[in-house]
């Protein structure tokens, strides 16, 4: 039976990706799961991120999804490979899990003229070295500079991103990134929560620096993937329906989700 495409994030961030996916592929059905009760993932260990992500992927599979997108860089960095190599071979062969790092790395080099790219991400994503490793495969001549921003996700999850306190951390981390190299001309927001900070970051950097979010990149990559894999595409239902689940308060989720998704949503609760 055809089922929705599953989209997962530790909390709200994946909604910035889902928004672009729905824009690019409006005909499909989507089932979103935000693990808000256990967010942020960015400062958690490899084992914990793997355990939480696997649990959420298993739930999405249990709802019938054949294809799950990890719309979370931290989960993509710390859990995706193990899920693909260790877990998927033990279950139904039609199930797929895709992440956001590889599709981003594939096109990232096209945005930079100076070949010096900055990455802003969670501790987990930075420590995993996933971006430097993946970018090297596609663009060996590009230099990658990374800065972990451990305070940003908690601030955004709590809707505190426009406060003086938030500005302090945003400025500090952006400066720390740019101090690593004066010719960085592209900054990737390598955490799906960060697009909410685009304007604040823009004000801190020179006009010639491109601030890049992943939503459109991931959406285009998914479109391409479904086009190349009709056997997966055939398992995806197409009634333009969306469902949202959170592991925390639905009241909070419904109030905050609009900041990320641009539209009102009505969520259901999931206990894991
Ligand atoms: N949106 C997640 C990401 O892209 C945030 C991770 C977190 O929960 O810290 O990395």
Q: Under the CATH scheme, which class of the largest domain?
A: Alpha Beta
CATH architecture of the largest domain: 3-Layer(aba) Sandwich
Major beta sheet, strand line-up: 4-3-1-2-9-10
Structural class: alpha/beta
At CATH level 3, the topology of the largest domain is Rossmann fold
Describe this structure in words.
The protein is of the alpha/beta class and 272 residues long. The protein has two domains: 5-99 and 216-269, 3-Layer(aba) Sandwich (Rossmann fold), CATH 3.40.50; 102-214, 3-Layer(aba) Sandwich (Rossmann fold), CATH 3.40.50. The chain is 44% helix and 16% strand. It contains 13 helices and ten strands. It has helices at residues 14-24, 46-62, 73-78, 80-87, 101-108, 123-128, 130-138, 152-157, 164-178, 198-202, 215-228, 230-233, 250-261; strands spanning 5-9, 30-34, 67-70, 96-98, 116-121, 143-148, 186-189, 210-212, 242-246, 267-269. The strands form two sheets. The chain has a six-stranded parallel beta sheet with strand order 4-3-1-2-9-10, sandwiched between helices. A four-stranded parallel beta sheet has the order 6-5-7-8, with helices on both faces. Strand 9, helix 13 and strand 10 (267-269) form a beta-alpha-beta unit. It is globular and about 55 Å long. It starts with a strand and ends with a strand. The mean pLDDT is 97. D-glutamic acid is lined by residues 9-11, 13, 39-42, 72-74, 122, 125, 153, 191-193.
